[in-house]
Queue: 3 jobs
Job 1
Amino acid sequence: MVGKARLALLVVLGVGVVALSAAALGEMMPARDGAPVGAVIKNTKGQTVGSLQVENAGNGKSKITVGVKNLPTGYHGFHVHTKGVCDPQATDPATGSPFFSAGGHFDLGSHLHDHHSGDLPNLLVGADGTGTASVVTDRFRVEQLFDSDGSAIMIHAMADNHANIPDRYRNAEGEEGPDAETLNAGDSGGRIACGVITRS
């Protein structure tokens, strides 16, 4: 009888230690207040073309999972942007690209592309217009997406070159290496879909 009681006590203590360890590490836990974090991604016509989920992955990392449909085939630049406003009517005065309301790439410092905190790998969309991806990053924590003006997820028209321009190429000024647009956004082109990141 004593043996069973001792075993039961050890099991309870073990469960408590495991629970404490998971909480301390933040392993796959929701955002701080427990609410799921994500976004509904819409195109310029206001049609839903995908969804995003963001969660704590432990050790200061965040896991981003995205699924999209009805998008052009190929690789697309995929970034967190600095403002949680997705207005397709707000266009970039220089390029005419929609969703200018979302600002530039989310960044916790003063980095060039592709070292912005919100820079993510390209999103591959198949011939059927669908794509899924999952990535873990240590460049931001979930809670940091909810600053005073929020944040958004953005899908661009073209692939992001991640500022990978060999010196044999020339910029508009005839100089070697990447030009200002490459250093800013990786030549990923116009913004075709956007989603405000929220706690649901």
Note: The two ends are 49 Å apart (CA to CA).
Job 2
Amino acid sequence: MNKNIKTKPSYNQEILKILKNKYGYSYDYIRKSIRGDRSGEISEKIKYEYNKLVSESRKAIEIQVSKL
């Protein structure tokens, strides 16, 4: 008997805090916006900004790693 194991996506908690402070929405709404469960202008902005901040943080980490 095989069980299907679904994993939940892991979101950057620091970026979620930034978006929560900026927009004032709950973490649940922000996660649903990123996932695409919510539609609208604000949800699209949240999704865009989250993805932009994640890519910028990865670049910053890569730069710091290359300096070591």
Note: The CA atoms of residues 10 and 52 lie 16 Å apart.
Job 3
Amino acid sequence: MVDLKIRPDNFALISTLSACAQLGELEKGKKVHDFIERNAIKVDSFLSTGLVDLYAKWVKPDGIGISGVLVGSSHEGLGDEARKLFDEMESVNKVPREPKHYGCMADLPGRAGLIKEVTEIIKDIPKGGDMSVWSGLLGGRRIHGDVEIVLEY
């Protein structure tokens, strides 16, 4: 579809992820996930499930897989599950935290209006994070009608 310049919808992406999971085509599934992120496609609960299904079929998680689970958790309001996975990334799964992982974690409380928690996450990020982290803060403030930002460092 991409080669034909046809933009796949969520149904096509879910079907493709499912096929990749069933056929053991993790690398092709990662390309689909990358396509989703690069094109800022809205990740709904069905697409989140497709991503989780793809990555859950593999024994050893990686940064991309964890990112997919964190994004899905954020969009579904599964904060406790995301926090547990994030906390265990390095110690249990041996996967280094990257700015995109912190961005997912900043998005969770931001969506719930817990802006103070987002600022605490930002303070713990090496080098202050990247755009994904700050968009979690700004997005949360926008959702809840509070666009004035005051951070104390």
Note: The helical segments are 10-23, 26-38, 45-56, 63-76, 79-88, 99-112, 115-124, 131-143.
